[in-house]
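For the sake of transparency, this paper describes our internal protein records without simplification. The remainder of this section carries one protein's record, kept here as part of the documentation:
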Amino acid sequence: MRIQTYIFPLLAVLLGLQLQGQESPADLGVAAIGLVVSDIDASERFYNDILGMQPAGSFSLDEQWSEDAGAANDKSFSVKMFKLNNSKTATVLKLAYFDKVKRRPKQYGINEYAGVNYITLNYNDLKPVADRLEKAGIKKLGWVKRDTYQLFFVRDPDGVFIELVGPPD
């Protein structure tokens, strides 16, 4: 009985200290990455079904919000969000889609244009995603194998390069 009297308050204090030490979203750095996609259905299948990202919510923004934000030429749009893992601090990939959008020119390498040209995703095991890519007919653009890691690039439905990194086989 006496031990319980001391243990429960001690556990409460330790839990409180642990929660105070957690980082805020601002401390974590990049909270989300936004990609504008030309076909939300194809992009959703790619990121969810093939790359294994999990849905993390969605929202739509109207013309007024777009005008206030100054980032989408006063056009309304919607966003579907995905995470590679369900961690509270995992980076969110936001797929934004409009009624109509021009596709970017095809790139043959990440060196061709300035700006965001590729996204890196880290996996604990690359085999399941590599199997899903192969089944979907999506070819690896190259494959680097080293003692401590392996990686390969693929393209998403809009041609954005996606770097997939994991431990060696």
